[in-house]
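seq as requested:
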Amino acid sequence: MTQAAGLPRDASARVVTVSDRSFAGERPDESGPLLVSLLTDVGFTVAAPIVVPDSAGQIVGAIRGGVEDRVDLVVTTGGTGLGPRDATPEATREVILREAPGLAEALRQYRRDEIPTTILSRGVAGIAGATLIVNLPGSPGAVRDGVAVLTPVIGHAVAQLRGGDH
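C-alpha coordinates:
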Protein backbone atom coordinates (compact mmCIF):
# COMPACT_ATOMS: atom_id res chain seq x y z
CA MET A 1 0.00 0.00 0.00
CA THR A 2 1.19 3.51 -0.78
CA GLN A 3 1.73 6.25 1.78
CA ALA A 4 -1.09 8.82 1.59
CA ALA A 5 0.04 12.07 -0.01
CA GLY A 6 -0.11 15.06 2.32
CA LEU A 7 -0.96 13.02 5.40
CA PRO A 8 0.52 14.71 8.50
CA ARG A 9 3.26 12.68 10.17
CA ASP A 10 1.32 12.54 13.43
CA ALA A 11 -1.99 11.42 11.88
CA SER A 12 -3.90 8.94 14.03
CA ALA A 13 -6.72 6.54 13.31
CA ARG A 14 -8.96 4.20 15.26
CA VAL A 15 -10.52 0.99 13.96
CA VAL A 16 -13.86 -0.25 15.29
CA THR A 17 -14.97 -3.76 14.32
CA VAL A 18 -18.72 -4.26 14.59
CA SER A 19 -19.56 -7.95 14.92
CA ASP A 20 -21.69 -9.90 17.36
CA ARG A 21 -19.73 -13.09 16.68
CA SER A 22 -16.27 -11.55 17.02
CA PHE A 23 -17.34 -9.70 20.19
CA ALA A 24 -18.59 -13.00 21.66
CA GLY A 25 -15.35 -14.78 20.71
CA GLU A 26 -17.17 -17.11 18.31
CA ARG A 27 -15.24 -15.92 15.25
CA PRO A 28 -11.86 -14.21 14.94
CA ASP A 29 -11.86 -10.60 13.82
CA GLU A 30 -10.18 -10.67 10.41
CA SER A 31 -11.14 -7.29 9.00
CA GLY A 32 -10.16 -5.15 12.02
CA PRO A 33 -6.49 -6.23 12.24
CA LEU A 34 -6.20 -6.03 8.45
CA LEU A 35 -7.58 -2.49 8.53
CA VAL A 36 -5.08 -1.51 11.25
CA SER A 37 -2.26 -2.87 9.09
CA LEU A 38 -3.42 -1.09 5.94
CA LEU A 39 -3.96 2.25 7.70
CA THR A 40 -0.51 1.94 9.27
CA ASP A 41 0.97 1.36 5.81
CA VAL A 42 -0.80 4.51 4.57
CA GLY A 43 0.86 6.52 7.37
CA PHE A 44 -1.50 6.54 10.36
CA THR A 45 -0.66 5.60 13.92
CA VAL A 46 -3.29 3.01 14.84
CA ALA A 47 -3.85 0.97 17.99
CA ALA A 48 -5.44 -2.49 18.03
CA PRO A 49 -9.05 -2.58 16.83
CA ILE A 50 -11.90 -2.10 19.26
CA VAL A 51 -14.49 -4.87 18.83
CA VAL A 52 -18.11 -4.12 19.68
CA PRO A 53 -21.36 -6.04 19.09
CA ASP A 54 -24.02 -4.94 16.61
CA SER A 55 -25.51 -2.61 19.22
CA ALA A 56 -26.15 1.02 18.32
CA GLY A 57 -25.22 2.24 21.79
CA GLN A 58 -21.88 0.45 21.83
CA ILE A 59 -21.06 1.53 18.28
CA VAL A 60 -21.87 5.16 19.16
CA GLY A 61 -19.69 4.89 22.26
CA ALA A 62 -16.71 3.51 20.34
CA ILE A 63 -16.97 6.18 17.63
CA ARG A 64 -17.47 9.00 20.16
CA GLY A 65 -14.41 7.73 22.03
CA GLY A 66 -12.32 8.34 18.93
CA VAL A 67 -13.75 11.83 18.50
CA GLU A 68 -13.13 12.65 22.17
CA ASP A 69 -9.56 11.34 21.86
CA ARG A 70 -9.14 13.62 18.82
CA VAL A 71 -8.05 10.93 16.40
CA ASP A 72 -8.04 12.13 12.82
CA LEU A 73 -9.91 9.14 11.40
CA VAL A 74 -12.30 6.52 12.78
CA VAL A 75 -13.04 3.64 10.43
CA THR A 76 -15.65 1.05 11.26
CA THR A 77 -15.79 -2.36 9.65
CA GLY A 78 -19.00 -4.36 9.72
CA GLY A 79 -22.66 -3.72 10.35
CA THR A 80 -23.34 -1.87 7.09
CA GLY A 81 -25.49 -4.48 5.35
CA LEU A 82 -29.19 -5.12 5.15
CA GLY A 83 -29.40 -7.54 8.08
CA PRO A 84 -31.77 -6.82 10.94
CA ARG A 85 -28.89 -6.19 13.41
CA ASP A 86 -26.76 -4.08 11.04
CA ALA A 87 -26.82 -0.74 12.87
CA THR A 88 -23.49 0.92 12.04
CA PRO A 89 -24.83 3.62 9.67
CA GLU A 90 -27.56 4.65 12.10
CA ALA A 91 -25.10 4.75 15.01
CA THR A 92 -22.64 6.77 12.92
CA ARG A 93 -25.33 9.31 12.05
CA GLU A 94 -25.88 9.85 15.79
CA VAL A 95 -22.27 11.03 16.07
CA ILE A 96 -21.50 12.92 12.87
CA LEU A 97 -22.39 16.58 12.47
CA ARG A 98 -21.84 16.76 8.71
CA GLU A 99 -21.96 13.96 6.14
CA ALA A 100 -19.31 13.38 3.48
CA PRO A 101 -21.51 11.61 0.93
CA GLY A 102 -18.89 11.55 -1.83
CA LEU A 103 -16.73 9.18 0.19
CA ALA A 104 -19.60 6.79 0.92
CA GLU A 105 -20.65 6.80 -2.74
CA ALA A 106 -17.08 6.24 -3.97
CA LEU A 107 -16.78 3.26 -1.62
CA ARG A 108 -20.00 1.76 -3.00
CA GLN A 109 -19.01 2.32 -6.64
CA TYR A 110 -15.44 1.01 -6.42
CA ARG A 111 -15.23 -2.30 -8.35
CA ARG A 112 -19.03 -2.34 -8.66
CA ASP A 113 -18.87 -4.06 -12.04
CA GLU A 114 -16.76 -6.88 -10.58
CA ILE A 115 -18.57 -7.13 -7.22
CA PRO A 116 -22.20 -6.02 -7.72
CA THR A 117 -23.06 -6.47 -4.03
CA THR A 118 -20.91 -3.44 -3.09
CA ILE A 119 -23.97 -1.27 -3.72
CA LEU A 120 -25.82 -3.03 -0.90
CA SER A 121 -23.62 -1.35 1.71
CA ARG A 122 -25.47 1.32 3.67
CA GLY A 123 -22.22 2.77 5.01
CA VAL A 124 -21.92 6.49 5.59
CA ALA A 125 -19.04 8.91 6.05
CA GLY A 126 -19.00 12.17 7.92
CA ILE A 127 -17.33 14.54 10.33
CA ALA A 128 -17.61 15.09 14.08
CA GLY A 129 -15.30 17.74 15.49
CA ALA A 130 -12.03 17.34 13.60
CA THR A 131 -12.52 13.59 13.08
CA LEU A 132 -13.51 11.92 9.83
CA ILE A 133 -15.66 8.82 10.35
CA VAL A 134 -16.02 6.21 7.59
CA ASN A 135 -18.04 2.97 7.56
CA LEU A 136 -16.70 -0.03 5.65
CA PRO A 137 -18.33 -3.43 5.20
CA GLY A 138 -16.98 -6.25 7.35
CA SER A 139 -15.12 -8.41 4.84
CA PRO A 140 -11.35 -8.32 4.34
CA GLY A 141 -11.87 -7.62 0.62
CA ALA A 142 -14.12 -4.64 1.36
CA VAL A 143 -11.52 -3.33 3.82
CA ARG A 144 -8.77 -3.55 1.18
CA ASP A 145 -10.98 -1.83 -1.38
CA GLY A 146 -12.03 0.83 1.12
CA VAL A 147 -8.46 1.77 1.96
CA ALA A 148 -7.66 1.87 -1.76
CA VAL A 149 -10.48 4.42 -2.21
CA LEU A 150 -9.43 6.51 0.81
CA THR A 151 -5.66 6.59 0.22
CA PRO A 152 -5.57 9.20 -2.59
CA VAL A 153 -7.74 11.69 -0.65
CA ILE A 154 -7.20 11.02 3.05
CA GLY A 155 -4.14 13.26 3.45
CA HIS A 156 -6.04 16.22 2.01
CA ALA A 157 -9.10 15.43 4.14
CA VAL A 158 -7.06 15.28 7.39
CA ALA A 159 -5.25 18.50 6.51
CA GLN A 160 -8.58 20.26 5.90
CA LEU A 161 -10.06 18.96 9.16
CA ARG A 162 -7.01 20.34 10.97
CA GLY A 163 -7.70 23.74 9.42
CA GLY A 164 -5.20 23.52 6.59
CA ASP A 165 -5.39 24.84 3.06
CA HIS A 166 -8.44 24.02 0.95
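The chain has a mean pLDDT of 96.
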